[in-house]
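Private note to self, pasted from the team thread so I don't lose it. Backbone tokens:
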């Protein structure tokens, strides 16, 4: 069976990543709730991004988009993945971290942009989370299985890290009673990294094109053959 796909842009998940980073840094949810409820004004003190360190696990299309924004904010940006080389990192204007532990231990914000697979499943495990600074934030708009979910929950509940911005979960939709829904140091969104007007316009248009081309025995955007 021939399998055909559709295009998708890398910018929407990169933009969501920054929405989560900014939301965490400036405590936007709590501040907005305080304004609506007539609470304290302001409700806290935000974090400066300029001068902070952004660590990227993965420097592909999405990671590179995120890196460029971080540099524009005046952040120190570093990256690591198994396939990343120092030369490629330098070409993107970022520093090359020599390993996961080094990156996690020296970053104020860690954002995940890796492809799921055997090499990345559980990469951010309990030991990796323990290497992070207590003041650091983890952002995951990639795949939930890259992070040990139980270890992450424990780290957040015990404030071993400052917080997390999460768009992906091992169970979706997230169960109504799941702690990620109510933890005050979690900014959660319902897996909407790619959910934008332009991306959906491309998806639905190209699905019709794929079907028409397949029926005409001239398949396009072929991803492979499922056998």
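Design output:
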């Amino acid at each position: 069976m021939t399998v055909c796909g559709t295009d998708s842009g890398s910018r929407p998940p990169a933009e969501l990543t920054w929405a989560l980073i900014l939301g965490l840094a400036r405590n936007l949810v709590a501040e907005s709730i305080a304004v609506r409820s007539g609470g304290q004004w302001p409700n806290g003190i935000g974090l400066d991004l300029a001068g902070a360190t952004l660590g990227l696990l993965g420097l592909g299309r999405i990671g590179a988009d995120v890196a460029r924004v971080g540099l524009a904010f005046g952040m120190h940006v570093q990256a690591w993945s198994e396939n990343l080389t120092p030369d490629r990192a330098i070409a993107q204007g970022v520093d090359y971290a020599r390993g996961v532990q080094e990156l996690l231990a020296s970053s104020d914000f860690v954002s995940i942009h890796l492809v799921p697979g055997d090499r990345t499943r559980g990469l951010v495990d309990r030991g990796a989370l323990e290497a992070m600074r207590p003041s650091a934030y983890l952002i995951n708009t990639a795949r939930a299985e890259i992070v040990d979910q139980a270890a992450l929950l424990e780290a957040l509940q015990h404030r071993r890290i400052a917080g997390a911005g999460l768009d992906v979960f091992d169970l979706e939709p997230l169960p109504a009673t799941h702690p990620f829904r109510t933890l005050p140091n979690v900014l959660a969104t319902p897996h909407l990294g790619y959910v934008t007007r332009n991306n959906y316009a491309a998806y639905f248009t190209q699905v019709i094109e794929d079907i028409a081309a397949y029926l005409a025995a001239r398949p396009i955007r072929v991803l492979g053959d499922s056998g």
